[in-house]
Amino acid sequence: xxxxxxxxxxxxxxxASDTAYKFTEAALEAGHQIQGIFFYNDGVxxxxxxxxxxxxxxxxxxxxxxxxxxxxxxxIVCIAAGKRRGITPDLIIPxxxxxxxxxxxxxxxxxxxxxxxxx
Amino acid sequence: MVxxxxxxxxxxxxxxxxxxxxxxxxxxxxxxxGAFEEDYTAVFVDDGVLDLKKDKDASGIEMKEFSTxxxxxxxxxxxxxxxxxxxxxxRGLTPEDxxxxxxxxxxxxxxxxxxxxxxxxxx
Lengths: 119, 123
Hints:
- The structure holds 2 protein chains of 2 kinds.
- Chain A is α/β, with parallel strands linked by helices.
- Helices cover about 35% and strands about 20% of the residues of chain A.
- Chain A has helices at about 15-30, 60-70, 80-85, 100-110; strands at about 1-5, 35-40, 75-80, 95-100, 115.
- In chain A, strand 1, helix 1 and strand 2 form a beta-alpha-beta unit.
- Chain B has one domain (about 10-120): Hypothetical Protein Ychn, Chain: A (3-Layer(aba) Sandwich).
- A 5-stranded parallel beta sheet of chain B has the order 4-3-2-1-5.
């Protein structure tokens, strides 16, 4: 099955962000495809390379970057939601692109299932 | 898999217009999506019914009064707009309180419409 993933909450403050990652990882392990992962609302904060959690905690942004590299995932951060929150191209992790909400519409059309992670 | 028909997408508007950004950024999604000519439905439930209440004034909290923009939903391709009657009544509202004509439906009708969708995006 081809999944689309929508992440609406930011890192650390809400487990929705972790669950999105875990779901994506599990879906890939089970042999499913990921059409795209779209970060919206405070979800755009998941992909900033400025985050520096304590060494014994997970680094949510780098975790996404590694998974994206391993599986050639398409990670998209919304330009409008990102601008509002100070997310610029030079601040985001590798393997993420900044694009518009039209890309989310496209994921909805192309995917077999769209799964939203939020509150 | 590209569907051989329009994709049926429902926006589930659950949150009050102010207090969080969900309603505002949800509206932005609806207006952008509308340009893509899929099959869109907007449903307002729980505090989301307050999004459509007319005569709001957000000037006291220095927030943009975005909610008048719901008026253009139809022009942007969001033609099916449903309000959950139970949520409406719980908040002391009547259909006359809304800024646009809406179809007030019961929860069974919403569940049925939801089951017919390819995608449901909750805000």
